[in-house]
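Table S2 (text version). Query chain:
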Amino acid sequence: MIMSLNHPFTELLQSLACMARETVSDSLIHATAEERSRRLGHAGSDVIFAIDQAVETGLVRILETEGGNLGGILLIAEGVGENERSVYPAGRKEEDCAWRMLVDPIDGTRGIMMDKRSAWFIAGVAPNRGEETCLRDTECAILAELPNSRAGVADTFIAVRGQGVSSFRSFLLSSDAPVEINVSPYAGDTIRGGFAQLSRFFPCGREETATLEDALWDRLFPDAEEGEVLGYEDQYISTGGQWVELLMGRDRFCADLRPLLFDSKLFAGKKRGMTCHPYDLAGLLVLEEAGVIVTDVKGDPLNAPFDTLTECNWLGYANQKIRDQVEPVLRGLLQEQGWME
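Corresponding structure-token output:
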């Protein structure tokens, strides 16, 4: 199913994703929601729940076995190792590892631990360039679905730079072999009548974000008829989930601008909320190889260091026509409303 992709990490990333999927499934069957959501502490930028720890343990076990065969791996993942960095095989120096791997073992923990909606295993691998290693160095990446207990299928998307995306669907309730699925971002020229949104999952900055979003729709479509539903939103509490919606053509535009808001004069004197971080974005290569456009707030191709702490804004457009429609209007509103100087 990935024979057309040539990279030493394609099989390992799939093995890690399968482990995560099986571990989450086992937890959904044998543990209660209360047990899965038990807080074990705080690591880096987020809370570590019991369901997270189970997947992290499996991640370490596999990398201990395979790391040496691949020239050494420096893992950067929330909740794993000292300062969220660990080396495989153990004992090797960081600078002697051939690769850096950035992982979010469960992106969307809060949804899956309540058995509400799929979470995603996200990972990206880049040659080890020391602390200068960044998302744009990624050579191989994966977005793999961790479905809830009612699902019958799970989707996987894996990319190698310059080789495109391999995508396939696994059947959870039968022994049928996985089948290919088409990655097909929306090809139209407008967000009108489709799903498009700004992220505002948590009760911090919702009012400001909703005001900006309403203004965006009003400014884009001043000809809207009375009672017309211009568009829809889907507040999927997972960056990986949001990105798959763009990949599959279900969403046309999505942006997460929480750090921009929290840094602005609008938020002066208020407590910051949770934001997006590079490990949430480790699957960026998958979107880019599929043709989805992902930028920062300046309009440059999205980039970030391989770490778990840097706060990140991102904007995702299904295609260039959608970007041409939305970006200039949104940029003007960000300045008008005080999000940007």
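Notes on Table S2: Residues 10-30 form the longest helix (21 residues). The domain at 195-336 is CATH 3.40.190.80 (D-Maltodextrin-Binding Protein; domain 2).
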